[in-house]
């Protein structure tokens, strides 16, 4: 396995090699898929798709690696582990496919059902922080807290009043 990252090539054995001159096209191999990737640049839409079995994209700005967990059931556990490691080291995010029984429409339907419930019903499963007698210490419903910034979210938008 060979992964191009930040101007270096990482091989399956863990050795690190310098790549050729900046701007040159280097081989980018990921598990059973190979694509040519120019260092520091995402391939054009469609060009950057990896060819071969499994799913994924060439790394770069805006790329989201796709990890097929179905490959684990097919006996390719180390391949999936390599993909996860590369995704977490490079972008920190990935999209998971191949989960048996997963139905995104059912998930959305149940989510809408829950959030349409009256506040009193949702509070029955609230975290202990919001309901003293709750058995939900770390997990549970978290009601909206007007005026408070949530530090567990990546992006937090809040209205700012500028006088002057």
UniProtKB/TrEMBL annotation:
InterPro entries found in the cross-reference section: DIOX_N, IPNS-like_sf
Residues covered by the Non-haem dioxygenase N-terminal domain: 64-144
Protein name, UniProt field: Non-haem dioxygenase N-terminal domain-containing protein
Organism field: Darwinula stevensoni
